[in-house]
Amino acid sequence: MNLDYLHTFREVAKWNSFTKAGEMLGYAQSSVTTQIKKLEEEFGVILFERWGGKIKLTSAGIELLEYANKIVSLIDEAKQSLSEQADLAGSLSIGTIESVAGFYLPPYLQAFKQRYPRVNLLLQQNICNRLVKGVKEGKYDLAIILDEKREDPDLNVTVIKQEPLVLVAKPDHHLAQLDKVDIRMLSDEKLIVTEQGCSYREVIGNLYRNHSIRFEYTIELGSIEAIKRCVAYGLGIAFLPLMAVETELAKGSLVRIFLPEADMRLSLQLIYHRKKWLSQSMKQLTSLLVKEI
Fold this sequence. Notes:
By secondary structure, this protein is an alpha/beta fold.
């Protein structure tokens, strides 16, 4: 079987479009169609069906996609292993969330690149649940997530550290003027939150519910930087990882509001699949990230 056909199949499945797959691979649509037909003939199944003017994978297509991902992953591992000589080379696909990518990883990535300049680091951001799914499916070599402790038989999980989740506000906010803030005082405050599915948004929601406070928000944003700017302009208060607001707290553009009833901490975790073959570059990066544990 021509492995190029599997690459084409994965690309069509990714975009749910023969045309888009052809554009991304540099093929004419007719060539993409021919390759998919050859795969269907090879396996004796239909891989795609049309639905409302679009295409989607059949059950057989979904099953083949799982095998195709494994095959391509194994080929990539073989290429990388054989290409690594005295100096580390190849690439690493790393999944993480915005706060970790922007406020934790940079010094570690800098140190790694200084030691191993020939290794390409492909950093991709997403929410934690999708990152975990991506690790299981082979989309990422590893992921660094900020979430409650993960327990999963398919994953190797290492907790790097505990990260406080802190409440921040504009310096002249009325809560910042109080000597003591009771969590029930938050019931009338305008809350700015991260996007749906974000791990610490769920933690905050649980905090509110546990104290019988109605969880309502005034603004929802998918960017930590945008949330901080909105808080600084007095549009509301927000719970964010301490690592994401340390600079603003030091400068005084934001202040931390201490809540005795809400000592919230999330686990910064490095995860990869238990069956994942560890290249030398991956071993070196994971060692660098967990060296202080």
